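Action item from last meeting closed. Structure (507 res):
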């Protein structure tokens, strides 16, 4: 039998106006971890969707050979039956069902026509143990953080007796600790004989766990490497991804922050469902004009809740505390008021970015700036088009046209549309939550440049980030949160990864 579990030969897949895959050939060895890298829109998710039957036979050209036979799946169920499982970029669990229901949903067996729930609860425990998730099978999924939800997805995949596991950016929503755990799990599953294909923009983790790496660019397979034999480095991957060298990761900035522009005093936020629980306790911080301020901490430290509650109480059942902008106390109780006060917010939640997915790119960019784009109450189409085109160019949003339906854009490019919308609204204070999650290295550089440009114009930026190098590379100051409280603050010069991690881990 061949050493390859999966062989993709000359695969081409087109959408109207887009050649998503252009004669792609890749071979995946049995039992290896094979990583797929490439810029946003390079075709990674599309390739995985072809393999797993999301795009059925007949909608692409070329061959997919699995375990020596050419496949012809009509849907995902067909590929599952043969032992292929895919975990998508956006998680697909049912939030209001329990863990065990999610694990067995859609592939339950009955005994004498009866579903034996007790059996399922017992069996799901086995899979939870296997993925190292310390939660009761009856826990409702929406109560779990993203990291744990990811583990439920993997437990679900394992319950189907799989041989090939495809993970599309599995760590993009996880913090360092959770990512580490997940990568260890993947390595453990490999020991048990599972083959794994992992798409990731985090090149450090790719090199850490992958045996082979294939790089796609503009829908073409550019190169494949054996990590050890080829002595593969991040620089080599980046070069093939973007087609040029990219030496520095963070553009230089020479501006110096000015006076305090915003101050938040004694901010406390209560849990949305459990009204007596505080998710943020007595947080006080300040932001200067022309400053980039980072908020670091573990997932669940309260950073997002702090920012969302300040921005129009988009989170929380109740908030206490005060916000001052230009020395004056402001009311930010609704998003409308927060925007009037000069705030803008870009959410971290990829699934729920606030995009109107069935609308085109242009509308999604302009929707928060209708006033600015109108004269005497009438929206200027010309202006709307100009602005949308400008952001498409500046952020390199990959789409055949600004009239494309937003749902058809790749994950990273949808993210860029959200950022464009907030930038167009031109807030004095921009709050970005995980601004580069799921964004490729080249596009990250462009986003960093834009943030630098904003502060050069005198705007101020608050950046919630789980990527410490990003905080250290971009911010003037760094606040560290843990357990709903601000535990410390560093100037850029004095901050190190170790110091931040240390404070972030204090309970
Ligand atoms: N259903 C669709 N209709 C039209 N175009 C599509 C559709 N799905 C994907 N595309 C286009 O195909 C190209 C490849 O998209 P794909 O989602 O595979 O990228 P990706 O490499 O996964 O990117 P990312 O890193 O941003 O997730 C993109 O240009 C995208 O806009
Ligand atoms: Mg993708």
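Sequence:
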């Amino acid at each position: 039998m061949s050493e390859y579990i999966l062989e993709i030969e000359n695969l081409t897949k087109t959408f109207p106006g887009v050649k998503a895959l252009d004669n792609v050939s890749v071979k995946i060895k049995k039992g290896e971890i094979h990583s797929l890298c490439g810029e946003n829109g390079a075709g990674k998710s599309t390739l995985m969707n072809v393999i797993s039957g999301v795009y059925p036979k007949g909608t692409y050209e070329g061959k997919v050979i699995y375990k020596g036979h050419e496949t012809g799946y009509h849907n995902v169920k067909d590929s599952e039956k043969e032992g292929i499982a895919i975990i998508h970029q956006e998680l697909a669990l049912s939030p209001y069902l329990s863990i065990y229901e999610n694990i067995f949903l859609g592939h339950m067996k009955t005994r004498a026509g009866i579903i034996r729930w007790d059996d399922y609860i017992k069996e799901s425990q086995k899979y939870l143990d296997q993925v190292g998730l310390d939660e009761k099978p009856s826990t409702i999924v929406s109560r779990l953080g993203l990291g744990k939800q990811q583990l439920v997805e993997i437990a679900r995949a394992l319950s189907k007796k799989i041989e090939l596991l495809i993970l599309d950016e599995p760590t993009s929503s996880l913090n360092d600790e959770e990512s580490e755990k997940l990568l260890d799990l993947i390595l453990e599953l490999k020991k048990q004989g599972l083959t794994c294909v992992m798409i990731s923009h985090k090149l450090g983790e790719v090199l850490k766990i992958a045996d082979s790496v294939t790089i796609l660019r503009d829908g073409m397979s550019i190169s494949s490497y054996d990590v050890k034999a080829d002595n593969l480095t991040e620089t080599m991957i980046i070069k093939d991804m973007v087609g040029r060298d990219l030496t520095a990761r963070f553009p230089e900035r020479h501006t110096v922050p000015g006076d305090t522009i915003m101050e938040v005093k004694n901010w406390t936020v209560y849990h949305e469902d459990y009204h007596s629980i505080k998710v943020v306790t007595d947080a006080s911080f300040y932001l200067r004009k022309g400053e980039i301020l980072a908020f670091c901490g573990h997932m669940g430290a309260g950073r997002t809740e702090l920012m969302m509650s300040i921005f129009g109480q988009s989170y929380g059942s109740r908030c206490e505390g005060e916000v001052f902008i230009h020395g004056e106390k402001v009311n930010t109780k609704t998003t409308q008021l927060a925007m009037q006060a000069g705030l803008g917010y870009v959410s971290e939640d990829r699934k729920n970015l606030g995009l109107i997915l069935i609308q085109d790119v242009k509308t999604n960019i302009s929707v928060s700036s209708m006033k600015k784009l109108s004269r005497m109450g009438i929206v200027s189409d010309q202006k709307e088009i100009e602005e949308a085109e400008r952001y498409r160019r500046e952020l390199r949003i990959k789409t055949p046209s600004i009239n494309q339906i937003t749902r058809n854009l790749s994950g990273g490019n949808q993210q860029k549309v959200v950022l464009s919308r907030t930038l167009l609204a031109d807030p004095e204070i921009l709050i970005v939550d995980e601004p580069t999650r799921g964004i490729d290295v080249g596009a990250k550089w462009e986003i960093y440049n834009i943030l630098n440009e904003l502060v050069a114009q005198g705007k101020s930026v608050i950046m919630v980030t789980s990527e410490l190098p990003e905080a250290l590379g971009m911010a003037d100051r760094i606040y560290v949160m843990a357990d709903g409280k601000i535990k410390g603050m560093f100037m850029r010069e004095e901050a190190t990864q170790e110091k931040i991690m240390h404070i972030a881990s204090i309970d």
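Note appended to the action item: The two ends are 54 Å apart (CA to CA).
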